[in-house]
Amino acid sequence: xxxxxxxxxxxxxxxxxxxxxxxxxxxxxxxxxxxxxxxxxxxxxxxxxxxxxxxxxxxxxxxxxxxxxxxxxxxxxxxxxxxxxxxxxxxxxxxxxxxxxxxxxxxxxxxxxxxxxxxxxxxxxxxxxxxxxxxxxxxxxxxxxxxxxxxxxxxxxxxxxxxxxxxxxxxxxxxxxxxxxxxxxxxxxxxxxxxxxxxxxxx
Length: 203
What we know:
This protein is of the alpha+beta class. It is 15% helix and 52% strand. Strand 7 and strand 8 (160-175) form a beta hairpin. It is elongated and about 55 Å long.
């Protein structure tokens, strides 16, 4: 039994050494990254400006496994479950006011083949609700679970990357939403399908 344990430990050590050696031989491999999202360009909109900020930071545990932290801030004035189409941001469908969110997020990303990846993010949105006169009417919390399927494109010897993806957001927890906001959003689902447009710098 002891001999089997020693052999197993030796095999694990050799596997780890080979992986580190392979990483060292790849001069383009980078452990860390910082980035954001192309959704920031939405801040140029003159209608329902989201005042969107997103900062991402990640660490590659292995070439295939990544953990990341994100921070998001935004403003929204319409039910978050409205799908893209004629109803999205349509007249008469907005909240009687707006919500501001601060959302620290933790995520995990797994690369499967070349640049193909899946990821899951837990977004903790602390929300401040404002009425039409910009008066605060309450605070709330929403837990968003975001799932992505995408592809990472690398540029300039892996210094920069771009990750277009198809994403699904689902919110299993949503608390203390004002009744006036609930009345508007109750007809919509508690999930939303949207693109992911992350980009970043590796170092």
